[in-house]
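Re: that chain you flagged

S.,

Sorry for the slow reply, it's been a week of failed gels. I finally had a moment to sit down with the sequence you sent. For the record, here it is as I used it:
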Amino acid sequence: MKARGGGGAEDPFRSHAAMAAGVMAVGAAVAALLPKVAEDRVSACWGVGLAAVTGVVALVLKRRAVQRDLKSALKVVGIVFGLRALGVLVGLLGVVSRGLAAVPFVAGFFGVYFALQWIEVSYVMAASKGAAGGDE
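Prediction finished late last night. Pasting the structure tokens below so you have them in one place:
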């Protein structure tokens, strides 16, 4: 697929989005199958779900930012960090207020988050190289 700007470089977004979707699917399967107690499964699924939602938002925002400039990309990193911090806080409050365990939520969220973070960094690097003509 060609980049939107027409520069002839390949847009790495699709491959990175596919990797992110794979990580989300594996995270959901692990959260649904690994915990022995039903309440722990629910808590872990909440964590994976919030990580997945914020991951989708992060990848889309980073795509838009990379198409602009480095300053925009750095702003998006801060915005996404805040969004994820808010997601963890709201999610933890949600599961704890329902009497669910916090550890499965944290494990689900951060298990998926760390993998998605690497994919996002890889995407930004690949997109930046493409925009610069591959010289970086």
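What I noticed first: The chain has four helices and no strands.

Talk soon,
D.
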